[in-house]
Write a structure and sequence with these properties.
Layout: H1 8-14, H2 59-72, E1 76-80, H3 83-91, E2 99-103, H4 108-116, E3 124-128, H5 133-138, E4 144-150, H6 162-171, E5 175-179, H7 184-187, E6 197-201, E7 215-219, H8 222-235, H9 241-252, H10 254-274, E8 280-282, H11 292-298, E9 305-309, H12 313-322, E10 327-328, E11 338-340, H13 352-357, E12 364-368, H14 374-394
Parallel strand pairs: 2-3, 2-4, 4-5, 5-6, 10-11
Antiparallel strand pairs: 1-7, 6-7, 8-9, 9-12, 11-12
Helix pairs in contact: 2-9, 12-14
This protein binds pyridoxal-5'-phosphate.
Residues 82-84, 107, 109-110, 150, 154, 179, 181, 201, 203-204, 213, 215 line the site of pyridoxal-5'-phosphate (PLP).
Modified residues (N6-(pyridoxal phosphate)lysine): 204
Keywords: Amino-acid biosynthesis, Lyase, Methionine biosynthesis, Pyridoxal phosphate
InterPro entries: Cys/Met-Metab_PyrdxlP-dep_enz, Cys_met_metab_PP, PyrdxlP-dep_Trfase, PyrdxlP-dep_Trfase_major, PyrdxlP-dep_Trfase_small
Length: 399
């Protein structure tokens, strides 16, 4: 069988299509060496070797870049020092006078970049409800150059039709960028659905252990890859060799981790849905979730992230103070479950009015399900909800 026909789970382990390069030729080491070298000796006066300086290219980073390109089915993969570095670098493909159309519930850091940085370079933006293709289509301007999609979105897990948006974009000569952080290549393949660039905060599921900050970008075609590689080298926000190694190791277990976490997420969702104190559960795997049919069509899994709404800030506070297993922190996609409070964490950069428009209410909590036993997590959630019930009885709120 040819390596390009291997299933994703196999490719997570064996990386790039020419996975022979993973076996270090001099020693046979099964792990890629960490090439801690900023510069590379040139054998010849006239011709440069494959590497000259590690900002422009590093052999450890190269394996990672080839791996993600292979997993996303793109022409070129690039590794950056953070998800935001990857996203910012992709936006640098734009020029003054251009306009971008953006999913209204993008990640808080992306929102900050678009609203507070791009304007300085005279790049205009419009936020639209991208779950509505008509609204998206109407918002396209003659100078729109990029449509920026995040699906499922953060934190309410709204679903955008990637293929629908990519078709609109193509018809208007725009590029489609998709932030694929929540789904990873295991569950969603935006390039196959027509996107031009797929972006990742590899800090999350891809590395999976809450240890490194990293970003990845994959371009559909070589020409766009060349342009983004030029930006990567010019702007210089590359991923270091050590972190590249760690991310390669993280990707190897992505299949096993994300599948188990997603199974547990579904169990937790079922439990939360039954609970009288939980006003709403957001999870794209739920058949009554508004985006469920589109998500099922374009993705092969519902993922490990869910959000749920309690009555108010007091209820959320009581829950967080009582919960034992999940860490209470920003971030997601790790072996340990991570509970976060979007209003003051992931979306702190967003003004309250904007948050309210996006359903990021004071009672909303987001849970990234890790690899703990689901039974233990459910028991923990149950006892935390009992604490919420006690506080509400104390203040005389009828349940
Ligand atoms: C975390 C995150 C980012 C930003 O990535 P960093 O690695 O923190 O810079 C972008 N998009 C999404 C969806 C994220 O969750």
């Amino acid at each position: 069988m040819r390596p390009e026909n291997d299933q994703l789970e196999t490719r997570f382990i064996h990386g790039s299509a020419n996975n022979r390069s993973h076996h270090e030729p001099a020693t046979g080491a099964v792990n890629v060496p960490i090439y801690l070298s900023s510069t590379f000796h040139q054998e010849s006066f006239d011709t440069m070797g494959p590497y000259d300086y590690s900002r422009s290219g590093n052999p450890t980073r190269q394996v990672l870049e080839d791996t993600i390109a292979n997993l996303e089915g793109g022409a070129r993969g690039l590794a950056f020092s953070s998800g935001m570095a990857a996203i910012s670098s992709a936006f640098m493909l734009l020029s003054a006078g251009d306009h971008v159309l953006v999913s209204k519930d993008v990640y808080g850091g992306t929102f900050r970049l678009i609203t507070e940085m791009l304007g300085k370079y005279n790049i205009d933006h419009t936020f639209v409800n991208m779950t509505d293709l008509n609204e998206t289509s109407r918002a396209i301007q003659s100078n729109t150059k990029v449509i920026y999609v995040e699906t499922p979105s953060n934190p309410c897990l709204n679903i955008t039709d990637i293929e629908g948006v990519a078709k609109l974009a193509k018809a208007h000569g725009c590029l489609t960028f998709v932030d694929n952080t929540f789904m990873t290549p295991l569950y969603q393949n935006p390039l196959e659905l027509g996107a031009d660039i797929v972006l990742h905060s590899a800090t999350k599921f891809l590395s999976g252990h809450s240890d490194i900050i990293a970003g990845l970008a994959v371009t559909k075609n070589e020409e766009l890859g060349e342009r983004l590689a030029f930006i990567q080298n010019s702007f210089g926000s590359i991923l270091g060799a050590q972190d590249s190694y760690q991310l390669i190791q993280g990707i190897k277990t992505l299949g096993a981790r994300l599948k188990q976490s997603s199974d547990s997420a579904l169990k937790i969702v079922s439990h939360l849905q039954e609970h009288s104190l939980v006003e709403e559960v957001y999870y794209p795997g739920l058949s009554h979730h508004a985006g469920h049919p589109i998500h099922r069509r374009q993705s092969t899994g519902a993922g490990a992230l869910l959000s749920f709404r309690l009555a108010d800030k007091e209820a959320a506070k009581a829950f967080v103070e009582q919960i034992r297993l999940p860490v209470f922190a920003v971030s997601l996609g790790a072996v340990e479950s991570i509970l976060s409070y979007p209003a003051t964490m992931s979306h702190a950069a967003m003004p309250e009015k904007e948050r309210a428009k996006r359903g990021i209410t004071d009672g909303l909590l987001r849970l990234s399900v890790g690899l703990e036993h689901p039974g233990d997590l459910i028991e923990d959630i149950e006892q935390a909800l009992q604490a919420v019930a006690r506080t509400r009885q104390k203040v005389g709120v009828s349940l």
